[in-house]
Amino acid sequence: MLAPALALEEYALLEDAGCETRIAAAKAKLGERCVILGHHYQRDEVFRHADLTGDSLKLSREAAQSSAQFIIFCGVHFMAEVADILSRPEQIAILPDLAAGCSMADMANLPAVERGWRELSQVLDAEASITPVTYINSAADLKAFCGRHGGIVCTSSNAQKILEWSFAQREKVLFFPDQHLGRNTGYRMGIPLEEMVTWDFSQPLGGLTEAQIRKARIILWKGFCSVHQMFKPEHIDRFLEKYPETRVIAHPECSFEVCQKAPYIGSTESILKIIRAAEPGTRWLVGTELNLVNRLANEMKPRGVDVHFMSPTVCMCSTMFRTDPQHLCWILENLVEGHVVNRIQVREEDARPARLALERMLAIA
Ligand code: 13P
Ligand code: SF4
């Protein structure tokens, strides 16, 4: 008979160094049955155990292609949901800490999006004229909404291609939950700001007039990432005053004003790619999460590339930070003992249409 599952409380006080050896030992026992996926925002003590690292797009592809029985996602909740949706039924997606959510993803929920869709349908024929696009940072039922309504999922690295596809389907886009990714991408595609309206989900008709809705090409849900809102245009100005030769690079979740001052804009994976290819002697100011920037700065220092964090204050993604070596150790040792803890399983009625929206994305990007 199987011994009871190991309790998380017994792990809480373990030293990081102790976890390190135990994680390595459990991983060795599990071998190819388990794969650990690590998002770039994970802290070093967790990141170093990842078999595969990447941004949301790369990791969702890895999840779809993995043959491991257990997919342990060191990231946030929506990422483990994507792993579950895209993997085979016998594979198991696991999130080491169930409290690792995404505050931006939480800014849109199905009842609010459905209410918005109904209200938009009072102004125009929503089904015929709007493609719903959800950022991958969203719950599975919102991806399912997009799947059901001819829509699609995007990530920060493929948003432009996805918007192009969406406009080829219908004349307008409803983009949720991140207004900034939608606005920054739309603007780079040549859509003027006045044709991108912000849908305030706390107000009737999103706080817009019927005329504004009819004129809009993109309707932007009023969500945002609090981590990326910490970066301000004046941070860039101050840094450039001191080091005018600096190259500025920002994640597209940053505000429009910050992205306007950044000649380089990219997802976490493209920020890494661009800076890793930089010439020695160059200096970079980076607007994205601190764990990634610190790791990159250390990696690039010996190569003579200077990497700086854009904000003068520390800002990390607190939910990404929740995944610690203690939780990872707990998950792995339970698997060794034959117990699956913290499984993420999306209901089949959501998984089916959500998969459709994700597969549309994967086929394009
Ligand atoms: P990436 O797609 O660049 O990994 O971004 C995910 C995310 O949550 C950024 O805040
Ligand atoms: Fe969500 Fe922002 Fe954290 Fe990314 S950095 S997971 S968008 S809260």
What does this structure look like?
With 365 residues, the chain is α/β, with parallel strands linked by helices. It folds into 3 domains: 8-101 and 320-346, Rossmann fold (3-Layer(aba) Sandwich), CATH 3.40.50.10800; 105-225, NadA-like (Rossmann fold); 228-309, 3-Layer(aba) Sandwich (Rossmann fold). The chain has helices spanning 9-12, 16-30, 44-47, 56-65, 77-86, 110-123, 126-129, 140-148, 159-169, 179-188, 210-215, 233-242, 256-260, 268-276, 290-300, 325-336, 348-364; strands spanning 34-39, 52-54, 70-74, 92-94, 130-135, 152-154, 172-176, 196-199, 218-221, 247-250, 264-265, 283-287, 306-309, 343-344. Helix 3 (44-47) links the parallel strand 1 and strand 2 (52-54). Helix 4 (56-65) packs parallel to helix 5. The structure holds 1,3-dihydroxyacetonephosphate and iron/sulfur cluster. Residues 76, 102-104, 137, 225, 227, 253, 289, 317, 319-320 line the site of iron/sulfur cluster.
